[in-house]
Specification:
The protein has about 425 residues and is an alpha/beta fold. It has two domains: about 180 residues, 3-Layer(bba) Sandwich (FAD/NAD(P)-binding domain); about 180 residues, FAD/NAD(P)-binding domain (3-Layer(bba) Sandwich), CATH 3.50.50. The chain is built from ten helices and 23 strands. The protein has an eight-stranded mixed beta sheet with strand order 7-6-5-2-1-8-20-19. The longest helix is centred in the middle third of the chain and has 21 residues. Bound molecules: flavin-adenine dinucleotide. This is FAD/NAD(P)-binding domain-containing protein. Belongs to the NADH dehydrogenase family. InterPro entries: FAD/NAD-bd_sf, FAD/NAD-binding_dom, NDH-2.
Length: about 425
């Protein structure tokens, strides 16, 4: 117990889940609204609208800027390492422990590079606001480079080839935003080189948007192809270097920007934890229906098979026997459940129930698809786009960001997107 006799609730991670809680161990000072990252990278609104500070006026939150390295469930302690870019080399000398009475584990996942050589070194990712900023800067640089008098037309084509690896909703939405940007602002800002820009989606599967019904993914594919986006399926990427993608059975493909959004893999903390995990697929922490972490082995003395005061949620966790998707929607619903549960005290018996939300993906040009709403006209087209765009306002959690978004949309309508300023 803490000095004031209140239980110490410690949260590992400051993503969609961590934002809902009291004290946080996280290497980041902000929590990203990931669904808004692609739009921010393409200057639909300022980057500040796509994230939330953990420390904020009026929010009682003890932020510890560190990575959780290990958890000792017997002594209720977390081993942590400071997380500062300029102290990485001796961070391990400064390890410290944080005690908890109740622990909420939500460190998310990392992007899966599948161990393909060159991906970590040369690809860009899209997980944090810093990634969205890096993409915008790279895009600007590539257009300026392509516009130099010494750049040949052929080189400009390679520089402006944007290769997106991963044809899930994230890859498709980034493609959609980039193609909107190209058709509007980039066409005016770089009239000579903008026609050389190409976007290609690569996916190892036989089609993109695998989570959708066949008619919907076929519709999305057809619409994007008509808008000049290239889609290469059954693409087995063998390696990547600074300028080329090497796909099995094909000639090297030159690229200017390589964006890797090919799915999730577990983080080292979750890999190391001695708790119950699924036998196949993504390594996640298994919990019971109340989100309490399951022990690795069954207790022969008939003791509880869960840690009663340790909860896990977000992308890093799943309820045993359920297989819920790794989405912000699931993370937010679980976080709200945990807050309700902790506020009501230990007697709470209600289980977590996931209210299935429709999956909406933007495919560009004010067009989109909605899974789970049948295959009628309402499940695609402008209505889906409106559904998706209005979602931007529901993701934000503060008035400041909400007002920021409205102002950005009004300014864009009046003056166009502010693409040139980072
Ligand atoms: C580009 C993009 C678009 C998306 N769009 C949608 C969408 O439209 N709808 C939807 O429902 N979902 C969407 N998602 C998925 C959604 O972002 C995730 O499901 C959600 O972020 C999961 O929340 P989380 O809190 O578990 O993890 P994260 O949000 O990943 O947060 C984890 C946090 O833990 C921190 N951390 C990591 N390791 C440690 C450690 N060892 N110690 C302490 N802290 C640690 C990380 O730095 C991070 O701050 C999108 C994802 C991406 C990448």
């Amino acid at each position: 117990m803490a000095k004031d006799n209140l239980p110490r609730v410690v949260v590992i991670g400051s993503g969609w889940v961590g934002l809902y809680s009291l004290s946080v161990v996280s290497p980041r000072l902000t929590s990203a609204y990931t669904p808004l990252l692609a739009s921010a990278a393409c200057s639909l609104f300022p980057f500040s609208c796509a994230e939330e500070s953990i420390r904020a006026k009026g929010r009682r939150c003890n932020l510890i800027k560190a990575n959780a390295i290990e958890i000792d469930f017997c002594s209720n302690q977390i081993l942590c390492e400071p997380a500062f870019d300029d102290h990485d080399s001796n961070a391990s000398d400064q390890q410290f422990r944080v005690a908890y009475d109740r622990l909420i584990i939500c460190p998310g996942c990392q992007t899966n590079d599948f161990g393909i050589p060159g991906v970590v070194e040369h690809a860009m990712f899209m997980k944090h606001v810093s990634d969205a900023m890096a993409l915008r800067k790279k895009l600007l640089d590539q257009f300026e480079r392509a516009s130099l008098p010494c750049t040949t037309r052929e080189d400009a084509c390679d520089m402006l080839h944007i290769a997106i690896v991963g044809g899930g909703p994230t890859g498709v939405e980034i493609t959609a935003e980039l193609s909107d940007l190209a058709r509007r602002e980039l066409k005016d800002l770089y009239p000579d080189v903008a026609p050389s820009m190409r976007i290609t989606i690569y996916d190892v599967a036989p089609h993109i948007l695998g989570a959708y019904d066949q008619k919907l993914y076929e519709y999305a594919t057809e619409q994007m192809l008509q808008r000049g986006i290239e889609i290469v399926t059954n693409a087995v990427i063998e390696r990547v270097d600074r300028t080329n993608l090497y796909i099995k059975g094909q000639n090297p493909v030159p690229y200017g920007i390589l964006l890797w959004v090919a799915g999730n893999r577990s983080i080292p903390l979750v890999d190391k934890l001695d708790v119950k995990k699924p036998e196949h697929g993504l390594i996640r922490i298994l919990t019971d229906d109340s989100l309490r972490v399951k022990k690795a082995s069954t207790d022969v003395h008939g003791h509880s098979d869960v840690y009663p005061d340790v909860f896990a949620l977000g992308d890093a966790a799943d309820i045993e026997g359920r297989s819920l998707p790794t989405t912000a929607e699931v993370a937010v619903q679980k976080a709200k459940y945990i807050v309700r549960r902790l506020n009501r005290g230990a007697t709470a018996t209600e289980n977590f129930a996931y209210a299935d939300k429709r999956l909406v993906t933007y495919i560009g040009s004010h067009d989109g698809i909605i899974e789970g709403s049948g295959l009628d006209e309402a499940s695609r087209g402008q209505r889906a786009w409106l559904d998706w765009r209005s979602g931007s306002f529901t993701w934000t959690r503060t008035w400041r960001n909400w007002v920021g978004l409205i102002c950005a949309y009004v300014l864009n309508a009046l003056f166009g997107r502010d693409f040139m300023r980072l």
